[in-house]
Amino acid sequence: MKYILILLFIPFLSNAQIKQEQLDLMPWPQNINLTAGTFVLSKSFKVNITGNSNPRIFLGATNFLRRLDGRTGLFLEQAFVIKNNEVNEAELQINCVRNGKIGLNEDESYQLEIQPNKIMINATTDIGALHALETLLQMLQNTSTLFYFPTAIITDYPRFTWRGLMIDAARHFQPVDVIKRNLDAMASMKMNVFHWHLADDQGWRIEIKKYPKLTQLASDGYYYTQEEIKSVVKYADERGILVIPEIDVPGHASALLSAFPEIGSKVSNEATYTVGRRSGIYTPTLDPTNPKTYQLLGEIFDAVCPLFPGNYFHIGGDENQGKEWDANPKIQEFKKKNGLANNHELQTYFTMKLIPMLKKHNKELMGWEEIMTKNMSKEAIIHSWKGVNESVSPGGSLVAAAKNGYKTVLSNGYYIDLMLGVQSHYLNDPIPKNAVLTAEEKARILGGEATMWSELVTPLNIDSRIWPRTAAIAERLWSNENVTDLNSLHKRMKTISFRLEELGIMHLRNKEVILRNISNNQETKALRDFSNVCEPLKVYKRNGGGKKYFMFSPLTLFADACTADAFDAYDFDTAVNNYLENKNIENQTLVTNFFRKWIAMNADLISLSGNAPLIQPLLPLSKNLKDISEELLLIIENKKTMNPDLLNGLLEKFNSRSPADVEVAVYANLKKLSQ
Amino acid sequence: MKYILILLFIPFLSNAQIKQEQLDLMPWPQNINLTAGTFVLSKSFKVNITGNSNPRIFLGATNFLRRLDGRTGLFLEQAFVIKNNEVNEAELQINCVRNGKIGLNEDESYQLEIQPNKIMINATTDIGALHALETLLQMLQNTSTLFYFPTAIITDYPRFTWRGLMIDAARHFQPVDVIKRNLDAMASMKMNVFHWHLADDQGWRIEIKKYPKLTQLASDGYYYTQEEIKSVVKYADERGILVIPEIDVPGHASALLSAFPEIGSKVSNEATYTVGRRSGIYTPTLDPTNPKTYQLLGEIFDAVCPLFPGNYFHIGGDENQGKEWDANPKIQEFKKKNGLANNHELQTYFTMKLIPMLKKHNKELMGWEEIMTKNMSKEAIIHSWKGVNESVSPGGSLVAAAKNGYKTVLSNGYYIDLMLGVQSHYLNDPIPKNAVLTAEEKARILGGEATMWSELVTPLNIDSRIWPRTAAIAERLWSNENVTDLNSLHKRMKTISFRLEELGIMHLRNKEVILRNISNNQETKALRDFSNVCEPLKVYKRNGGGKKYFMFSPLTLFADACTADAFDAYDFDTAVNNYLENKNIENQTLVTNFFRKWIAMNADLISLSGNAPLIQPLLPLSKNLKDISEELLLIIENKKTMNPDLLNGLLEKFNSRSPADVEVAVYANLKKLSQ
Question: Which of A563, B393, B486, B617 could form a disulfide with B659 if both were Cys (CB 3.0 to 4.6 A apart)?
């Protein structure tokens, strides 16, 4: 028996050298040196912690064991890691020199060395060690019968210190479990800043004990209690993540003002405000001339700040159009009296008053780029968000801020709510190639942040809007700037996307839920096939002018099952490019298989629609795809010659808006084949 | 255009009379009278509330609108229902005479009348009205293009006042979101008691502020804060559900004693206890002779009781084998001194001391059937759970309790953790057909409760263990005792199971998650096909003797993707029975299609296993199914004559335990075909 085992192992070991390109690591480490050996996992695999460790790494190591066991089904013997030096002979040794402090500029580096019988993680802080454990989980490989790690030495550290995700919990409330599972996913991508957008026109989402009116009148019952906030902050801390709250003022204040109309800028003292139910920019704005405004905000900050141990507080400050200010003679008079030339200066006056209110709690003020006016304190952090959609040069404020002496964070280009393909985000570097910046100015660019605005996002579909694209953003912010290969990105994202499921991310599973609902519990294959070539309308086209979707509208529709980077579109793109390069029969078949699939799919959708009203809006677009597929199939298989007019007509049909609020992601390739 | 519309509608309306058998209502209402009309839904559909209403029905009506909109995609115009008489002209009028009180014996009846242009709900209490809204959602029908309700008059009320679900949050912790989504599902099945098992050998799950040690030492960090408990109780209240806490004493106390060893029954004063990590019965038991025991329990009750406004408190009381008591001379002496003949009497002594401690908080004591000893107070509620597995007559204690003057609740026969098929639960009536009971005795049988013990249950797989089988139990407890048609049950359960998804129940979606993990992100079709004929080992065979699975073992395995009532087994059963009755070619094809599917599936599994170690344990069983499928296929298609020895040999193979911890659910039908 012994001999047989050895014989079985020989082919495995001799072929073991894995190539870097085969690894699905993300974000890609700074240095990786693969060697020829393997570390084979068995149920006796154990972890030992040494150094100056703490509950964070004990919990991290325990969670690591459970995830490893869940993947491998090995029935690992070690249950919990609860103190140092528990299992001195353990195969995995983790050493941390000191406790990490959650916040910016902490040492997050680590070294991970995998030897055939031993794995060593060395890190200055436990936060670095947590990152190492994520890398180790990503290193897991398998044969047909066992799981192993390839031997390697990895040294790694982040390029930027701010690698953030913002979630807007105001427009659609996102319960604690949604936040926590996304914190897990962030940690797995080595992200370290969670920016929590807690108040906007559509809702006030944080309990203020002194002012229960806020949540009673402005949350529809959907808000975080202070204890829930604390539990999220603790959960984030355990994963090395800093939480930054945002209370958006002086604009985006409809919810706040619906509870406290007396601090609004409307002329009448008896004016009222209501919570917003639609998308878009609202006019309600705090009155910067009213002392009560600062008194109330001060009390709110006094309640909110202690919940967040980090040193940053986001006050929003964006999209104040000043309409209420312009319309209020009292405010105009105030500007004149105080030598404030325009509304920008008035807003600066307002924002400057907030700085000491936050400093009292040891918090630096952060705001969207509109706060950067000439008299703004250099202590403020500028959050750069505007770009082409706002008719300004993309991320222009970032460079300006760095040059003006502000610390700054980039979100322009990372607006994942726009439903753009991953490549645009991935290739968006926080330090623009063409920017001429001194080392000091560069150092002020702290990093970047993906922004999940939630106009069209609910707990059902939010994960598929955040992931896996945010993993690519995480790589941009962590990895070397030269890591930009798109083929590698796409290949690795497939595995990373799948692995996010083990952290509770629902992007894959909830897609099926939506399709089952649309199908009325019939077979979902045709819907799935169609969803894999459709993408939700991009930028703000799905809800242009905020006219179609209100905050209570259904987001259980086909467009909600579809995602950016439609699954089959990338493969079709590859197939078409290969075919156009070499029209051999294999390449041809890869293309024509897609056409056959879409023709059959259209027939299936028609059949399903007999018992599923929600399929009706899909049929025109599906028919367009079937029509052009039939035509191109005949042409490619030489049963018909190309008729450019006919094909142009068929292509033209794709330009009408689909009632399903999606577009086909294969249009460009259909066009290529039609020429 | 008008004419065309009318013409289009005529065939719909004239064929509109739906039959009762087509409705997928569950639990089936007491009276339903269908008429020939239809109420067609449009986006202008609105709700109006009248009578003595309250926030519960406003929230219920709002949630109803969102669910209806999520299903239909109609973009309903009404956002929130926040007060009485908001929309007097609304098509749906809900009238409640008075506020319901959460608890037993409340009036839960309702009348639902659907007319072609108007729907009326009349109920004594808002709780009845909430039930009516669930029925209305179940009444929703569709054509190919629209959604409608068939006209009908339904009058409905529950047969039993206790329609419960117990969730064991001790053995595997179940976070708040798991509890809340299951409360939603319970409400949709008109269940009204949530029994929350909060402490057992494997964990103490409720924060006691005076004694933080309990959760620090005995929860591994997994427990409910008092605020979380309150939020669950509130959530349940909003859905008409009473929450009953259970603190299991004097046995099942390893966790409690690991924090407070001084009140344990071990002889030594320096004895220690540890939190349980395995399944099975533990010996650690509270010391009933120690005044400190009562002092501590009193303080725990003082902390727990105010969190639960209901009038019931479950103290467990089960499975105390008295081993520690027998081994402790001091305790033996106490028994002698106090004239307690045996451990039963000692336990009664203990339990009786708890009654006033609970009465102080206006709570009646409830316990598992072991508490029913001769001196037990008649105020206690007896929870009947033992049966064949415990070598006693099924539910025997229920009848005994009713005869002895106790109120009683049935759980024997509703142990959903045993992974038995739904029929056994469905046909288990709380009032046994053969029991001779007076009307008064019958009235003491309050109802029944499904019990979700969590030895093998995590947030990933729990929903598929609870649902849809618990829907059948809910029907048993609500509907007329004559509603027992199994074909109707199976047909309706398919739709009900699907609809539970909209409440966030994860049984369907998480199955795919587990299969994706097993497949190592390959195509899951073959695994899905196999999981649809396999069922996890039943009763306690999967973890016999508690030897295989500990509380930290992986529950991400094939057995966790499989469920009771394997999806394809019922259809195969129908196909085989039809074929054996009439061997025509259609019936033959229905059977042989299964065989072809399983033969192909086995080949696919082998192929997938090349890159998926977790598939290896499935292959022997899959091969057995393929082997007998090939043989029976040849026989049925007359390509071979039957060889009984060969077939018996093939069948015999199914009797070895599969390393995948499952069994095929088609064995009996394979055997039928082999004869």
Answer: B617
**Those residues with Cβ within 8 angstroms of residue B598's Cβ, 6 or more apart along the chain or in another chain:** B529, B533, B622, B625, B626, B629
Residue B5, pLDDT above cutoff 80: no
Give Cβ neighbours of residue A636 (< 8 Å, ≥ 6 apart).
Answer: A588, A591, A592, A595, A673
User: In angstroms, what separates the C-alpha of B299 from chain A's closest C-alpha?
Assistant: 24
C-alpha to C-alpha distance for A204 and A150, rounded to whole angstroms: 50
Q: Identify the helix (H) or strand (E) that includes residue A150.
A: strand A147-156
ipTM of the assembly? 0.96
Which is it for the CA torsion A76, A78, A79, A84, positive or negative? negative
How many whole angstroms separate alpha carbon B544 and alpha carbon B542?
A: 6
Residue of A nearest to B552 (CA): A79
Query: Do residues B204 and B218 lie in contact, with contact meaning Cβ atoms separated by under 8 Å?
Result: yes
Q: How do B242-249 and B193-200 pair as beta strands? A: parallel
CA-wise closest residue to B106 among B58, B155, B55, B157: B157
E strand or H helix that includes residue B266: none
With contacts defined as CB-CB under 8 Å, which chain B residues touch A66? 552
Kindly report the number of other CB atoms within 10 A of residue A236's CB atom: 25
A603 membership: H or E segment, kind and range: helix A585-609
Domains of chain B: 2-156 (3.30.379.10), 509-673 (no CATH)
State how far residue B552 is from chain A, nearest Cα, in angstroms. Answer: 6
Contact indicator for B220, B170 with CB cutoff of 8 Å: no
> Catalytic residues of B, which ones?
319
8-state DSSP, A415: B
- Is residue A58 packed enough to be buried (19+ CB in 10 Å), middle (13-18) or exposed (0-12)? buried
Give contacts of B512 with chain A, Cβ < 8 Å. Answer: 508-509, 512
Nearest to A509 among B80, B177, B512 (CB): B512
Q: Dig out the tokens for A460 from the structure.
A: 């059902």
pLDDT at B228: 97
Tokens of residue B371, six digits = 């508490």
- Put simply, the answer to whether A147 touches B613 (Cβ < 8 Å) is yes
CA distance A619 to A653: 13
Would the pLDDT of A11 be above 50? no
For an interface test with B, give the residue of A137, A227, A558 to mutate (most B CBs within 10 A). Answer: A227
- Check B142 against A557: CB less than 8 A apart: no
Write down the H helix ranges in B222-273.
Answer: 226-238, 254-259
pLDDT in tens, A363-404: 999 999 999 988 899 999 999 999 988 888 888 899 999 999
- Residues 6 or more apart whose CB falls under 8 angstroms from that of B159 comprise B477, B478, B479, B480, B481
Distance from CA of A66 to the nearest CA of B (A): 7
Query: Which positions 508-527 of B are in contact with A (Cβ < 8 Å)?
Result: 508-510, 512-513, 516-517, 520-521
Virtual CA dihedral for B640, B644, B645, B648, nearest 10 degrees? Answer: 110
Which positions 597-636 of B are in contact with A (Cβ < 8 Å)?
609-614, 616
Asked whether A421 and A564 are in contact (CB, 8 A), the reply is yes
Q: B472 pLDDT exceeds 60?
A: yes
Let me know if A336 is exposed, middle or buried by CB neighbors in 10 A (0-12, 13-18, 19+): exposed
Nearest by CB to B498, which of A66, A175, A516? Answer: A516
Confirm if B369 and B434 have CB atoms less than 8 A apart.
Answer: no
Q: Which residue has the tokens 């009996």?
A: B668
Nearest to B513 among A145, A225, A509 (CB): A509
Average confidence (pLDDT) over A92-110: 97
